[in-house]
Amino acid sequence: MSVNWALPFEERIVPEGAHNLVDIETYHKLHRLSVENYKEYWASIAKELPWFKPWEKTLDDSNPPFYKWFVGGELNACYICVDRHAKSWRKNKVAIIWEGEPWENEKAREIRKITYGELFREVNRVAYLLKSYGLKKGDVIGIYLPMIPELPIFMLAASRLGVAFSVVFSGFSADALAERMNDAEAKLLVTADGGWRNGKVVPLKQIADEALSKCKTIKNVIVVRRTKEDVNMAQGRDEFFDKLMESVPQNVYVEPERVKSEDTLYVLYTSGTTGKPKGQVHDVGGYLTLLHATMKDVFDIQDTDVYWCTADIGWVTGHSYIVYGPLMEGATTLMYEGSLTYPEPDRWVSIIERHGVNIFYTSPTAIRGWMRFGEEWVKKHDVSSIRLIHSVGEPINPEAFRWLFKLLGREKVPFGSTWWMTETGGILISHTPGKYLVPLKPGTNGPPIFGVDADVFDDNGKPQKPEERGYLVIKKPWPGMPLTIFKDPERYKQVYWSRFQGVFYAGDYAVKDRDGYFWILGRADEVIKVAGHRLGTYELESALIQHKAVAEAAVVGVPDELKGEVPVAFVILKQGYTPSEELRKELNLWVRERVGPIASLKNVYFVSKLPKTRSAKIMRRVVQAVVVGKPVGDVTTLEDGASVEEVKRAYLELQKEVQG
Ligand code: WT7
């Protein structure tokens, strides 16, 4: 759990530049109506989308928790994001502004602006190409690309055909890629020669090759040339994208497939507490409905806006709020390839100034990183175009909130912290400056959006008292919810719908204050958030025990000033191995190679014993308390299945080992 600061429940900020202001009582009154009539409410939003065929049933809830939204309806996500704008006055409007990372000299600077008309042409051509591989509705393709325009283009082209895709973040390792591609049974992989990050080339094709040697289902690989490095090309399997496109006619038209509302748009993997990553399956109709509602209400998107979400499309934030959300609204979405502080700490502010960004969506880790460089870097640029800010990914500390609110928000623009997760498809708890705005508070997530019934439960599944910690739950189905976990419906039921009867368990600790604002405090399970990215401690532990020297391992998250949380490992060595600084480094490298660079261990403690309950569960809170120096009294009541005495003893033993 990462919140270790006081929550300013009583503070209220009314941004002077905001419209749609209401007091919290009015908000709750109107919100309650939307929740009582949630099916009608969501149907009224969905009606604003161009369906090929209207739905017959708003919600099929006959087989919970496998809910289906807008049953009988037919639509196409690519048509909604591209065709309808390309066939309108938006044809020459910029859909995507892309800025590449390299910035050393004037000549290396790359900016691409793709209009809706051009996007239509490219997406059709790529759809034609994918079709030539025989791909069709029901198939899955894998995408392992850096932040270049081809990434959204391939996503859109796949959805045009009704082909599902699974994007793997380009910072993931070969093992992580192979595991996901095998689970998804991907038939084709789209990757690149490399990607730019912090002035260096990430050798994506090389990593993909290593993964491909373990992938059973991938028969073809399309390689986009980005860095122009020499790469190995397997004969009969790999082709360069630009080469392939030479034989695709310039103005082909590929009819968008009429897919069912509850067909699969994509599968995106998330870390869990046990076992392999879970493939979250998202539908088309419900997902787009939630994105439409939140683009309007949370982001207040207007046709005149330049909108920038700083996430990577490899995560759900980018899927929803760089690609599908903004494009379905016909907005101009900015996509930046690399590090926000490369080559200088003010790169991100220079992008805002250069492109006149109006709406800015970023993360607490990014903000804390900028704070370290000092406010002078922000002040070098004109940021007066900014009219709305949101944050996402982890709890935002009030200090970081205030810093960005002052420097970027000039203390007058709405600034919120939107809560959601890969599973929810889109934002569920947030301020809604595009609809009704209630006063801000530094660090809060605000109230749930309309149509969403959220609550905080105690251990027994009863509503928790205000200002007391409990578990975040969603009490009614919402559009955008997962269809299931790919190929594992039982696990879907068990992970999200069995902790409390009939409600969705998010896995987060939360408190609700007296105004009904939510404050999400961090994960209640064995998932940690490193720089806003989700990492299952289990994945790190299984990587560690694959090492020849490791007998047992426990990984816990500890607070970190910059990244929110970082993993530390406790390792019991096998007979014949002795602790050393080298081994520590080796184990760290080992984990990074198996999981990816985000899995960097802050420390490795060599111990002779791990504290366990009688049912052999590692007492994680004891382990964590020892690292952060929390008194044992704070943990004795939290560890299930162990007596206070046992916890105390385990704590002291471990403490002795760590200090000794
Ligand atoms: C977890 C989901 C979907 C956005 C990117 C992360 C944490 C997310 C907030 C926020 C406090 C937040 C939760 C959640 N989280 N947004 N605004 N305030 N915590 O998606 O990787 O699926 O992670 O991120 O702990 O459960 P994700």
List the keywords.
EC 6.2.1.1; ligase; binds 5'-O-[(S)-butoxy(hydroxy)phosphoryl]adenosine; 660 residues; alpha/beta; 19 helices; Acetate--CoA ligase; GMP Synthetase, Chain A, domain 3; AMP binding; 7-stranded mixed sheet; 5-stranded parallel sheet
Describe this structure in words.
This protein is an alpha/beta fold. The protein has a domain at 526-659: GMP Synthetase, Chain A, domain 3. It contains 19 helices and 30 strands. The strands form nine sheets. It has a seven-stranded mixed beta sheet, with helices on both faces. Helix 1 packs across helix 2 (38-46) and helix 3 (77-86) crosses helix 4 (116-132). The model has no long low-confidence stretch (mean pLDDT 95). It binds 5'-O-[(S)-butoxy(hydroxy)phosphoryl]adenosine. Residues 270, 316-317, 392-395, 417-422, 445, 506-508, 520, 522-523, 529, 534 line the site of 5'-O-[(S)-butoxy(hydroxy)phosphoryl]adenosine.
Subunit arrangement of the protein:
single chain
Hetero ligands: 5'-O-[(S)-butoxy(hydroxy)phosphoryl]adenosine
Low-confidence region ranges: none
What is the CATH architecture annotation of the domain at 526-659?
2-Layer Sandwich
CATH topology of the domain at 526-659: GMP Synthetase, Chain A, domain 3
Would you count the extended β strands for me? 30
Strand content: 15-25%
Average pLDDT score: 95
For the terminal residues, how far apart are their CA atoms? Answer: 26 Å
How can the largest sheet be summarized?
7 strands, mixed
Based on helices, strands and strand pairing, what is the structural class? alpha/beta
Major β-sheet strand ordering: 5-4-17-16-18-19-20
GO molecular function, one term: ATP binding
Domain AMP-binding enzyme C-terminal: 539-617
Domain AMP-dependent synthetase/ligase: 83-478
EC number: 6.2.1.1
